[in-house]
UniProtKB/TrEMBL annotation:
Its cofactor is FMN. It holds the Pfam family FMN_dh. Signal peptide: none annotated. Belongs to the FMN-dependent alpha-hydroxy acid dehydrogenase family. Keywords: Flavoprotein, FMN, Oxidoreductase. This is Alpha-hydroxy-acid oxidizing protein. InterPro entries: Aldolase_TIM (IPR013785), Alpha-hydoxy_acid_DH_FMN (IPR012133), FMN-dep_DH (IPR000262), FMN_HAD (IPR037396), FMN_hydac_DH_AS (IPR008259). The active site is at residue 281.
Length: 384
């Protein structure tokens, strides 16, 4: 059945729209994960382990969904986590995501592997902006990206710490997905079956990775899978000491993305991080690892109040956000929930996805008897 944007009401609908509108290898890059993809599916299933307990007869005419995170007040308790290669998904790419974040006044992030440059994003958008730093072996590249983030007034830096090597993304191996796309008989067939996407890719702005192209050929001029890129190009000697060294050159809030243990959460405090993203990279790295939601309460109990905690991964519904906030997360973030909508319909898709998420959160807060995020707490949660 042909799917239209106006008939999309949840993440599953946006996923179907994306699958319909973009070539198979690109859809499976967004949709896929590592090994048997058990962690990927468990990230969402983990939210089903507990139930929300509402309170009634509380005035809920006015609902405040705002939170303060990484030095900024945002109007939604969930933001758009930085992800790579977005102009492969839709020709508007990071520009579309920024437009949606601006409209809803929430954080959005761009990656070291973004398809739009730091300078343009910094000048174009006034909403809170995060840069996701992949620490490369090439020190001059790291320094260049960091300096540009300072120059163009990015609000926070998120250092990804769970990509020492690339995960075993078997879907990408089967489809032959690379950056930039490599033309094979199989990929050309999938491109031919997505004529609108193919025309946009061929005639619009040429695909590039602006942060990388003046330093590296891999991923820009030389086609490479993302897994191979992480393994070959990123710094496998990344350490807590190197995080401290980066912090010396970054005065604004610093977030460590990919923290999953209490021990590492405590170390993040010691090196001066402002926040941690409890995240397993959407199940794309270590299959068989715990879900962020499963780890959330343990980490909150150990470090809450000493560092901000962002629950990142598996979020598909407003109730997922409310459960994470009830357990003590300061905010939530996600990737696929907006990437499907970007791939399916560009800026209009991302705005609709955020609008629906906002509606769910507001409606569910009213049903919970909560007028502000601060009303949510562990008393709202019961485990099955």
């Amino acid at each position: 059945m042909f799917k239209r944007l106006e008939n999309c009401y949840n993440t599953a609908d946006f996923r179907a729209l994306a699958k319909q509108n973009i070539p198979g290898p690109i859809f499976h890059y967004i949709d896929g994960a590592a090994d048997d993809e058990k962690t990927y599916f468990h990230n969402t299933e983990a939210f089903d382990k507990c139930d929300l307990v509402p309170n009634v007869l509380n005035p809920v005419t006015n609902i405040d969904t705002s939170v303060e995170i990484l030095g900024k007040k945002i109007d939604l308790p969930i933001f758009l986590s930085p992800t790579a290669l977005q102009r492969l998904f839709h020709h508007e790419g990071e520009r579309a995501v920024g437009e949606a974040a601006e409209e809803f006044n929430t954080y959005f992030g761009i990656s070291s592997l973004a398809t739009i440059g730091i300078k343009e994003i910094g000048k174009k958008f006034n909403c809170p902006k995060m840069f996701q730093l992949y620490v490369h072996k090439d020190k001059s590249l790291n320094e260049d990206m960091l300096q540009k983030c300072v120059e163009y007034n990015f609000d926070s830096l998120a250092i990804t710490v769970d990509t020492i090597v690339g995960g075993n993304r078997e879907r990408d191996l089967r489809t032959g997905f690379t950056s930039p796309p490599r033309l094979t008989m199989g990929s050309m067939l999938s491109f031919a079956l997505s004529p609108k996407w193919s025309m946009n890719y061929l005639v619009r702005e040429k695909f590039s990775l602006p942060q990388l192209e003046s330093h590296l050929s891999e991923g820009t001029k030389i086609a490479m899978s993302v897994g191979d890129y992480f393994t070959k190009m990123l710094d496998q000697e990344l350490s807590w000491k190197k995080i401290e060294d980066i912090k010396k050159n970054w005065e604004k809030p610093l977030c460590l993305k990919g923290i999953m243990s209490v021990e590492d959460a405590k170390k993040a405090i010691d090196v001066g991080a402002s926040a941690i993203m409890v995240s397993n990279h959407g199940g794309r790295q270590l299959d068989g690892s715990r879900s962020p939601f499963d780890q959330l309460e343990e980490i909150v109990n150990a470090v809450s109040g000493k560092i901000e905690i962002i629950c990142d991964g598996g979020i598909r519904r407003g109730t997922h956000v409310l459960k994470a906030l009830s357990l003590g997360a300061n905010a939530c973030s996600g990737g696929r929930f907006y990437l499907y909508s970007l791939a399916g319909a560009g800026s209009s898709g991302v705005k609709r996805a955020l609008s629906l998420m906002n509606d769910e959160i507001v409606r569910d807060m009213k049903l919970m008897g909560c007028s502000s995020i601060s009303d949510l707490n562990k008393k709202n949660i019961r485990y099955k």
